[in-house]
Amino acid sequence: MKLGEVQLTPIRLRDSAEWRAVRLRNASWLQPWEATSPAGSLQAPTTFADMVRELRREARAGRVVPWIIRVSGRLAGQLTVNSISFGSLRSAQAGYWVASEFAGRGVAPTALAVATDHCWTTLGLHRMEVNIRPENQASRRVVDKLGFRREGTRERYLHINGDWADHQSFALTVEEVPGGLTARWLDSRGAEGAARSDESGN
């Protein structure tokens, strides 16, 4: 799936070298927000190949949709839709990271908008949720730009960077965005550009 220079592609084993290089360059940028495993619990996959195999197993079971985010062909990050539930809930959660060199360019909100629309239209889901640490202002700007509602705080929700961390929960339902989230995001970017042009002309 592609929108402008931003493309979502299925995560593959052949992404390994590029993924590891991007992660290494961005280690200090990403570490404060990284999920960790508490002592004594089941450890997360330790290699890229293990991670991809686990994501593929979960995808086959219908619980996860994992993507690589690319910008003009370059690996820029990762977006995973997880906790997919059908039945009467029809909901999912999205998690993402973007390399520092792509921050502030609209990459993360574009990727999240495209992924959300895919879940609503292709998978038939009803609701998308994003959980963010209060300190993560960059990620908070992503959901703010897309108009996600804040639903409250989940105390000690996830184990992040070595400790249990509170998260703020944000969500949107398909009924709130009848024209699709991608279209609304593109409209808002056009309006921002027009406003900047007006300001520069005064």
- The string of secondary-structure elements, in order, is EEHHHEEEHEHEEH
The CATH architecture assignment turns out to be 3-Layer(aba) Sandwich
Q: Which strand order do you get reading across the main beta sheet? A: 1-2-3-4-5-6-8-7
CATH superfamily, by name, is: Gcn5-related N-acetyltransferase (GNAT)
Helix proportion range: 25-40%
Overall CATH class:
Alpha Beta
Please give the radius of gyration in angstroms: 17 Å
In percent terms, what proportion of residues is strand? 25-35%
For the sheet with most strands, the description reads:
8 strands, mixed
Q: What's the domain count?
A: 1
Output the CATH topology. Aminopeptidase
Q: What is the residue-averaged pLDDT?
A: 90
Distance between termini?
A: 39 Å
For this entry, what is the oligomeric state of its chains? Answer: single chain
Number of helices, counting only DSSP H or I runs of 4 residues or more: 6
- Structural class category: alpha+beta
